[in-house]
Specification:
The protein has 88 residues and is α+β, with helices and mostly antiparallel strands. The protein is 18% helix and 36% strand. It has a 5-stranded antiparallel sheet with strand order 4-3-2-1-5, covered by helices on one side. The protein is flat. It starts with a strand and ends in a 7-residue tail after the last helix. 8% of the residues are buried. About 12% of the residues have low confidence.
Length: 88
């Protein structure tokens, strides 16, 4: 199995704050979703078959190389470590 990423958006959420959600699946099938909002960014770990993060639309699933997957996740982790907003 190759790593993948899918982009989801929540435009019509209950909180009226637009979110972008990056749903990554690693080569072993583990899923983690990162939710990006205008005022904060936070990691939302999920089970491999979870569909519980609400979204109103999603794009296709893109297959990544292992290097692309590691770089994307590394950049998100770097951003999380250096966010100007406190995480809840």
């Amino acid at each position: 199995m190759h790593p993948t990423v899918k982009v989801r958006v929540d435009l019509l959420g209950d909180d009226l704050v637009q979110h972008t959600i990056l749903r990554f699946t690693d080569a072993r099938g583990r899923v983690i979703e990162y939710g990006l909002a205008p005022d904060a960014m936070h990691a939302l770990p999920t089970a491999p078959d979870a569909e519980d993060i609400r979204h109103s639309a999603e794009g296709p699933t893109w297959v990544l190389t292992e290097a692309q997957y590691r770089r994307l996740v590394s950049e998100i982790q770097r951003s999380l470590a250096n966010t100007p907003c406190p995480l809840a």
